[in-house]
Structures
1.
Amino acid sequence: MKSVGSIGAAAVLSSWVALAFVPLSARASVPADPPSFTNPLAITNLYQPFEPGGFKRYVGTTEGRRLDVTEVYLSETRTFRWNGGDVPTRILMEISVEAGHLSEITRDFFAQAVDGTVYNFGEIVDAYEDDVIVGHEGSWLVGGVTLPSDPPGTAAASNPTVFMPANPELGDEFKQEDLYPDVDETDTVRAVRRTIVVPAGSFEDVLGLVETSRLESGRQTVALAPGVGVVLTVKGEDRLALVSSTLRARERRR
């Protein structure tokens, strides 16, 4: 199995970074109406799958330091009260280690709507220094703090956000985080049906997103493979590549 280095990492990454400068307009595949949830725990979205008990591991750099990230697809769930009903969500835990030291643990809450769109109901952020929690900047939840374990000061959102459309198309634009000035992120689909090679293997039908935020400068380019999700992120000199995963690539339906 080839690694990024064996085919020329610079060429691969440069081609994805270039996506940030392709002018596009939004398309209609991003839902505009409020979502309906009947079986929200069955997350089958091609580019944002969820397999309880699964994990993914990434390795890269941030500000010149080694970065190791592990994503754990938890079996436990959390229910949110929204739009007059209860919506259970899946929990994705992400553990970040910088230069050998724990730096952050986050928990994101996802649910899939009837149309196949995955929605984000919030994120709890625990920032660490010397193995001690020192802050929760970036934490937000639909409905705000509702559990004793929720960090004080967590921002309250009225509605969930579109995390991944059911059938993303070139030019689609959506906001995975939309609670300025607490959190803010705009995502634009800049490429479809690409092929990319990372240490975890070769992936086809890859989706390319460009992420921007009013809270920070620069753009991040993200590559997502069907059945796996994110396989590569690049922002300036910082990058993170998938090295192992229990989630397996799937063929996109034509």
2.
Amino acid sequence: MKVLLTKDVYKLGRAGDVKRVADGYGRNFLLPQGLAVLATPGALKQVDRIRSVAATKRAALNNEMSGIAEKLNNAVVAFSSKAGETGKLYGSITSQMIVDALNKKYGLAIERRMVELQPIRTLGEHKAHVRLTVDLPPEVRVIVHREGEVIAIEEAVEEAPAAEETEQQ
């Protein structure tokens, strides 16, 4: 099935693109949600208008979200967890836990779906991308340490902003 995207769809394309998708995906998700229309000759005549409207909406959204992106870019979130001798966690750090920590720390309203990360199952430092818009994916540092190693992690969290300040000067 060929569809014309009317809105940006994550991992599929931007508004105004003509894409070939599975029949079920188009019929059961894209069309009912208003994210796409069938790629008929009449609809294809409206491609330029759809792209221009989407570009203005995308620019306005990027301006709105740029403040949040600056807060989140290189933000550091630390978690303590029980782990085995090899560094494997007895549980995992999920995207929901990261979202809860970021919302509490920065007073934001981020959703779990916005964080691109597989569950963390090892100790150490990991990177998570927060998908605010298509063009703004700030990167968040996630530090996972053993319970009882709080002092070393707090120092790493405090050193990160100091290191960024020296790099900027």
3.
Amino acid sequence: MNKLCLSIISIIISVLFLSISSVGFAQSIKERFKERLPQIIELKNEGIIGENNRGYLEFVGAKKKKENLIRAENRDRQLVYETIAKKENTSAEKVGKRRAIQLRGLASPGHWLQDENGNWYKK
């Protein structure tokens, strides 16, 4: 085989590898979100956490519980926002703010939310 053929094959293999690893990456994040969801809903129902105006979970009062869980959730959200931002040629911050608006619409009654001005309120 000549060098051009080897180069083309290498590029194709690299593209396929990146596609497969991106799917695996997305799937693993999705599984982690699903795994954490019951605990997050429980914390929201207890009024311990809420959805802030940047698309992340935040402790509403002084009581903090399962901080590692919240950090892990926010870390995965950040990765998702960054991935979407790259695809849409925008910033992760803008993606997070758009997601915060969606989350406000999906929130259950009694859950804490933060408006655009940073004020917390119960839905």
